[in-house]
Each structure stands twice: as C-alpha cells, then as structure tokens.
Amino acid sequence: MIISIFDLFKVGIGPSSSHTVGPMVAARLFVRGLTEAKPIDESTSIDNVARVKVALYGSLGATGKGHGSGKAVLLGLMGMKPETVDVDAIPDLMQSIRDTQKLSLNEEKVIAFNEESDLIFHRKETLPFHSNGMKIQAFDNDDNLQMEKIYYSVGGGFVIDDEQCNTLANDDLSRRDSPIKQDVTVVPHHFSNAHELLNLCKSTGLSISQLMFENEQTWRTPDEIESGILSIWQEMQECVKKGCHNSGILPGGLKVKRRAAEMYQSLKDEKTHELFNQGSMDWVNLYALAVNEENAAGGRVVTAPTNGAAGIIPAVMHYFKNFCSGYEQLGNEGIVKFMLTAGAIGLIIKENASISGAEVGCQGEVGSASAMAAAGLTEVLGGSPEQVENAAEIGIEHNLGLTCDPIGGLVQIPCIERNAMGAVKAINASRMALRGDGTHYVSLDKVIHTMRETGKDMSLKYKETARGGLAIHVLEVPVNIVEC
C-alpha cells in the first residue's frame, strides 16, 4: 500500500477527521457520483432526485452528534470540500437548512430535507468491515430508490466504499478489520514496514527524508513537494496563531473554557516565566492546546494524521522552529525534512495497524502522532535512521493501551490536554533516542503490531463510542449533548 504524505497531512475542519472530514468527503462523493455510478434506474440523474436519506452507524452513530458528523454530511451533500469550506459561514448554512427544510444538492438541485427523518444516528448498530459506517440513499418524487452507497470513514479523513471493502476482504481476510484502498503505484523505494525502510536507508545511503522525497516525486515535482509541505506548515502556523488569540467557551454543551489565549498572554509575561520557569515545555503545551481548541471549535486544522491528534506534530514543529538551533541552520529545509520523515512513520503505522480511534482507541491517534513527531524531530536534529526509528518506537510504546473515551462524544476532554501530553512525550522520545546509538530491544514494527493487537482486544466501549471510561464516569449519561 503506497500513499503520499499529502494523503496523511490534509487541510480540513474540526473536530474529527474520521467523524467530520470523512463523512463530509463521503457525502460529496455520493452527490458527485449520482450520474457517474451505475444507477438502479437508467434514467437516474441529480435532476430526478427529490430526497436523500443518510444513516450513520457504529461509532459515527454513537458519537456523531458530538463530533459534528451531521453538519459534515450536509456540507458534503451541498458539494463542499473540507479544505475550502468557509468555516465561518457554516452556522448560518446549517440554520438555513433547518429553517427552510431544504438543501441544495451539490449546489445544483434544491431538495426537501428534514433533518429528523433524513439524517439518522444508529447508536447501537454497526455495519460490516469498520465501526465508522454510513449509508446514503437517493429517492425520486415517487420515493423510488435511485442510488444507494455505503461508505466507511477509516481514519485520517480516508474514505472507502463497500465495493472496495469487498475486494479487500476477498484478497486478504486478515485486513478485513482495517480496510484501506490499495494503490499499485510503483515508487523508487518501496517499503511496507520499518525494517524494510531501515534496510533501504542502508543500501542507498539516504536518510529517511531523502528517501521519502524521491518517492514523493512519483506524484509531484521537487518544487511542488516543497511548496506543498510549506503550504501545510503555513496552515498549521495559522491554526496555532488563531488558537492563541481566540477565547471563550467551546461549543457542544460541556462549557469547556478555552485556555490557550490566556496562557499565551501569560507566557509573554517575563514575571510568569520566572515564577514557573518551565521554558520551552510551557510553549509546547500552548501550541498543542491552541490547535486542538481550534479543532474542537470546528475551525480549520491539518489532519496530522487525524484531527483528534492534530496538535502534536504542529507543537513539536514549533518547538523545533523556536527552540532548536537546528532550525537556524536548516530553515524551511528542516520543515520539509521533518514532515517527510513523520510521513514515513505515519504510512507504516497506517498500513500495519490503524490511526483510527474508533478502531484501536486513542493509541492509534495520539500514539501515532507522537511517534511521527518524535521521528521528524530526531531527523532534523541530526539523528541517524536507526535513531529515528528508535524515537518513533518510544513514541508509540508509551501510548499503548490509550483509550478513546471522549466525554459527551466531543473532541474536548480529554482530547485537548492529551495532545499537549503527546507532544511532550514526542520531544522526550527524540531526546532519549538521540542519546543512544539507535540500538534498542523493541523494534518499531513489533510495537506497531502490538498496538494493532491491543486495539483488537480493547473493549468497544473504549473505542470512540462514549460508552465507557471518562465518557460515563464524568457525565454519567453518554452522548446526550446537542450537536454544535
């Protein structure tokens, strides 16, 4: 399975890559395919559609209201993209649909849409193949079914349909629990695990970032790769900046107060610095909190590799930029190397385990992001490929078993603070690896395999269903919050 790092790092909207970005992408795919897919009735076209019905299952059904899955579906049905939708206009768009009970399908055809009857959350039903499933149906004026599709949001904004799932299940039943669209693209340096990656680095003499840069040229020119990465970095910086200046209460009903803006002002005060004297780590906490407060508010973020863990990599990259002498030497070249290396680790994790909290718990989100950030930082601080692999292994190993139990199904508690903890862990993992020579007892491949098996063994109530852990021991009544 080969994918580009630009598939891992995508600009989208909060609060969740699997529960917001994925459903939005799926709904848009459906409306765009109304005249392209093989219809039940040969006369099917978007002009003949009078009603659309969407049903969300599994984790999407259980925590979709808190994650904004409903609004994401409506935006997708209107033909909007996560990376370009005007986030400030979303509340008015949603209110208009609810007031008029009409929706502009793909911005071409106005249809009737009753949110109560046409958007259903099945909290206790799950579709085959993956816990994030959704079914979309289109009907004509006589209520005849025109088209039906099932989609799965498999984490990080990746979406596949039921036909791709069936193909994967027939080809490799062992992958049925984590279907990913296969890509037969041939790249110069193919690897499917960390062992193969290290061997390639040895045989070619390339660093991990250099090897990834050559692979990325399969799809883009060198200038396009660099400009694309720097564009993503700019989005990350904008997200941190907004998070450092936006205050107030996060939407959703928990009444969580945003802290980043106040913390930013406090850290600018030299007396506060002297009082607490935590230096760079206070700033790392700030960077991560700023991103994930923006995410929780439904703002624009970069999936890295998911929205729930979106603050970790930007926080560590800001640490590199603002507190490491390596940035003074490398500048933007260091940013490119960082993200290429982080992307290599993310690809390995996605192929051999999962980055989906609904599939393996938060170890797949925060654990993966922490490993990716640790690897990227180690590379730009002069680490060898073996030290990079060691840093990534430490990043995952000490997040094993981490559950996904968001209170109220909202990506707020414990998710926001957990990103700050994941960023600090990533920096410490890098420091430990750089103090060694790259040799260590547990390999990255073994710890990724362990994460996958731990996710299989983990109870469903700890995998983004809001049926266990903090989700019930704080609120006591799970997922009882009106969608923001």
Task: Summarize this entry quickly.
This protein has 484 residues and is an alpha+beta fold. The protein has helices at 5-8, 17-32, 58-67, 69-77, 90-100, 115-118, 162-171, 194-204, 208-216, 222-243, 260-267, 270-276, 280-296, 312-323, 325-330, 332-352, 357-360, 366-380, 385-397, 415-435, 444-457, 470-473, and strands at 10-13, 51-57, 102-105, 109-112, 119-121, 132-139, 145-153, 159-161, 300-303.
Polypeptide structure, described:
With 484 residues, this protein is of the alpha+beta class. The protein folds into 2 domains: 14-175, 60s Ribosomal Protein L30, Chain: A (2-Layer Sandwich), CATH 3.30.1330; 194-473, no CATH class. 51% of the residues lie in helices and 10% in strands. The chain is built from 22 helices and 9 strands. The chain has helices at residues 5-8, 17-32, 58-67, 69-77, 90-100, 115-118, 162-171, 194-204, 208-216, 222-243, 260-267, 270-276, 280-296, 312-323, 325-330, 332-352, 357-360, 366-380, 385-397, 415-435, 444-457, 470-473; strands at residues 10-13, 51-57, 102-105, 109-112, 119-121, 132-139, 145-153, 159-161, 300-303. It has a 5-stranded mixed sheet with strand order 5-2-6-7-8. A hairpin with a 5-residue loop joins strand 7 and strand 8 (159-161). The longest helix is centred in the middle third of the chain and has 22 residues, at 222-243. 53% of the residues are buried. Residues 170-182 and 477-484 have low confidence and may be disordered.
Sheet with the most strands: spatial strand order: 5-2-6-7-8
Task: Give the oligomeric state.
Answer: single chain
Biggest sheet overview: 5 strands, mixed
**Average pLDDT:** 89
Beta-strand proportion: 5-15%
The helicity comes to: 40-55%
The helix-and-strand class reads alpha+beta
Low-confidence stretches: 170-182, 477-484
Could you tell me how far the N terminus lies from the C terminus, measured between alpha carbons in angstroms? 37 Å
Computed Rg: 22 Å
Using the alpha-carbon principal axes, give the shape: globular
Number of domains: 2
Number of strands: 9
**Total of DSSP H or I helical runs spanning 4+ residues:** 22
